[in-house]
Amino acid sequence: MTDDLPEDGTVASGATLHLTFAPTATQRTPDGMLDVDADGWGGVTTGLVDGVATVPLAGLAPGAHELRFSYGGGSWFQALTLTRSVTVRGTEPPPPATIATSTALSLGRTTVAAGSAATASLRVATSDGSSPVGQVEVRVDGAVVATRLIGSAPFEVALPTGAVGAHTVTARFVGSAPYGDSSATAATLTVTRAAATIAAKAKRRGDGRAQVRVSVTAPVPATGTVQLLCALKGAEPKVVATTTLTGDGRAVLRSKRPLPRRAVLLVRYAGSSAVAPVEQRLRLR
Length: 285
What we know:
Blueprint: E1 2-3, E2 10-11, E3 16-20, E4 33-38, E5 43-49, E6 52-56, E7 63-71, E8 80-88, E9 101-107, E10 111-113, E11 119-126, E12 134-140, E13 143-150, E14 155-158, E15 165-175, E16 182-183, E17 187-192, E18 197-204, E19 210-217, E20 225-231, E21 238-244, E22 250-254, E23 264-269, E24 278-283
Parallel strand pairs: 2-8, 10-17
Antiparallel strand pairs: 1-3, 3-6, 4-5, 4-7, 5-6, 7-8, 9-11, 11-14, 12-13, 12-15, 15-16, 15-17, 18-19, 19-22, 20-21, 20-23, 23-24
């Protein structure tokens, strides 16, 4: 006699067990009745069909049980007894219904200068008006810039503004059960070059050449070159010195040759990918 009970003896609530009786040497198929005793309290009697006894376990409560199967045999078959330990799993409750959510994203300003503040406001609403539980992930051009565990209240996150150009801002809410996920409509943040200010002070050296100290200030680091131009009366300004700003946005320009007194000087910052050009006029005394 064999059965189809799993090796660990664990079955689902309401399972059915099958016991198979092998034919005799004369190929006679066993028949007759099988008594099933559960935990010593008696049980059911079932008949063999084509040598197989079907034993429903629906009456067993969740937990561990000992089953004793007794086959009385017959004129052609000997009596058999089999004892097996069975563990019935409890019925798991169905998962809670998913509560739909919607995520809204809005930008404080859609166009900002490089280095200035930019924010995104987010809010997650639910279909039943309850407070959602989960996490919002904010991305700019696919890169995560903020994550926040949230409730129903709206909140703001800061956005990076270092790179000039158009940037795609997205937000996705990943809900904790029973709240479903949702994504906001993408928004576009445009970052323009930052405005800069320039401060220059000129003096005449003993050899007549001009020396100009320059400082360029912007919300983001100002990099690149500055030029010193000299404008003579009635002529276009000509470049008389060029240098590169240091890391703190400063530089010293020195003309290559002596310049006339009261010459009009133009200090010009060429700008960079993140900072707009700027210039200042001054007179050499």
